[in-house]
Amino acid sequence: MGLIKLAAAGAVGYALYKYATEKKQDTAYAGGIRDSGPEHMTTPPKNWSKTDEAIDESFPASDPPATY
How far is Cα 27 from Cα 35, in angstroms, rounded to an integer? Predict the structure, then answer.
């Protein structure tokens, strides 16, 4: 009976440890990739055209946007 209690205590301890050390992922900057648009840039440009927006939305695709 003592072994079962020890295993249960270990499982609870492990679950609490995983919960306490879980990294919360920031949805605004998940995985090093930001959302498109100047509002998501650290230093947004003063002028922002539709062409700039189309190029930013297409990154990191290899093909340029059709409106370029």
Answer: 10
- Tens of pLDDT, residues 36-64: 888 888 888 889 888 888 888 877 666 66
* Amino acid letter, residue 60: P
H helices present in the chain, as ranges? 2-21, 50-58
Radius of gyration (C-alpha) of the chain in whole angstroms:
23
Domain interval for residue 66: 44-68
Q: Is residue 65 part of a domain?
A: yes
CA atoms within 13 A on the CB side of 47: 2
Q: Is the pLDDT of residue 28 over 60?
A: no
CA distance 20 to 26: 17
pTM of the model: 0.40
